[in-house]
Amino acid sequence: MTGVKQYDFRSMSFYQIWIRSFCDGNGDGIGDLYGVYDKLEYIKSLGVDGIWFSPIYPSPNADYGYDISDYRNIHPDYGDLAQFKKVLQKAHGLGLKVILDLVINHTSDEHPWFLESRKGKDNPYSDYYIWRDPKWKRRAKRPPNNWFSQFEGLAWEYDDLREQYYLHVFAKKQPDLNMDNPKVREEVKGIMRFWLDMGVDGFREDVITYISKHPQLPDGIPFLPAINGLPFYKDGPNLLTYLKEFREVAREYGAIQIGEAPMTPVKTALRYLTGEDRVLDMMIQFDTMMADCFLTEFVHHGFWLAKLKRAFSRWQYALAGKAWNALYLENHDHPRVISRYGSEKYWRESGTMLAACYLFQQGTPFIYQGQEIGMTNIRLSSIDQYKDVASIHAYHAFYKHGSEEKRMHRIHLASRDSARTPMQWSVASNAGFSSAQPWFAVNPNYTQINVEQEERDPDSILNFYRRCLALRKSSQTLLWGHYREYIRHSRKIYLYERSYAGERILVMLCNYPETGTTGILRPYEVRVFQWGSE
Ligand code: GLC
Ligand code: CA
Asked: What is the pLDDT of residues 150-160, one digit of tens each?
């Protein structure tokens, strides 16, 4: 295959920006590209090598940017194409790569393609989406199958204009594209080229493993709420073929592709990630997240270290020498880990321990805005104050049997909004995020947890992240070394080793306030030992 040589993303690390809450540069209470422009030096100072932007395109914000109404523009809230180009140029000048979110499983229902598609079966866009006739039962319209959407009720919505149902695996305002239509795939390639021609360095590809649906759309498994249809739209029959097509475009530019792959098992992942002709460079897998997140709220409550360790090790071992891991703990879907996996009481200890727990594994780390200063979950008093469609639905539909207190407790732990509060820059009003009233609540703990203060404190979580990222970058052992886990059965300690050319680095992490009989580590302590060469 021809193409431009790809840059070596393996030694890099990335910072994720969820722009609406990052930094407001023009004083309207909403984060934007003016704010990003001003903070690029800060991002660079962390020691990362690139930025992944969650969607910055025009969007009605039913799912805060993941419902796109124009793929080739910037949301007016965030600036315009000219400002994006400025950010891109400055980032490149600082040696930072820029990766955009490519959301092509679905569009917004306000996208012109959908507006056209609704009009009938004989317009050029009629097959851009997944439309089906109703099933009739006792003269009543029924959806084509029993699938539930992941965000709001049934996965099918009846459209009066077209007189058919359309499929939406996520919110109602996110109709799924019909990727089996070659015209849709050409559109995707066109969108990729549009941004790659501008100089963008790659894509994080949203729920990319959902784009090929089972042709018969069979009924799903009845007892799996919200994901009963999953086996029929995840890792579908044509996925690899379609990914190959997109890969060819990326190859022409040497761009990297990071695929988000909810619930894809590691064995399947290897199909996409292995070798020179791989179709994805890295995968955002959900095993680590499933140790405790909004998706597991249905099954079990609370964090489970054993599950997390197992997930980490499973991917480390399976990918070793064959493929490359994307490492992450937090993102815009996954609440703050100090509040979930660690302890707000032992804030500094658990924040630094959690950093070391993943940054020293083999892979390319992603750090979500605010994670580097140890931001914690927000706890708003009523569901009316929340914005996320999935959280609001969960409160009304899934948590409805609990007391108000219990329901809100689950929202506090698991809501995606918990990690979407404005970035805490300083002790100034609105945490230095904006001179105006921010679009979403600021966590009141900004007076203790903020960038300005942590810059001055050599032992802050912020400076610990910097040290870890610098150490990772300078160490052949941490970059390339063999991974091995010890005392797998410990329920309190996570212990792993990296070894390379005679050097060994041992990472010991305690994840509990009490270490009991082990007595080796203090609560939430981390120790890193290095021996061998040097
Ligand atoms: C991904 C995104 C999430 C979004 C969903 C639908 O999981 O990370 O934020 O809601 O896809 O686009
Ligand atoms: Ca703004």
From this structure: 999 999 999 99
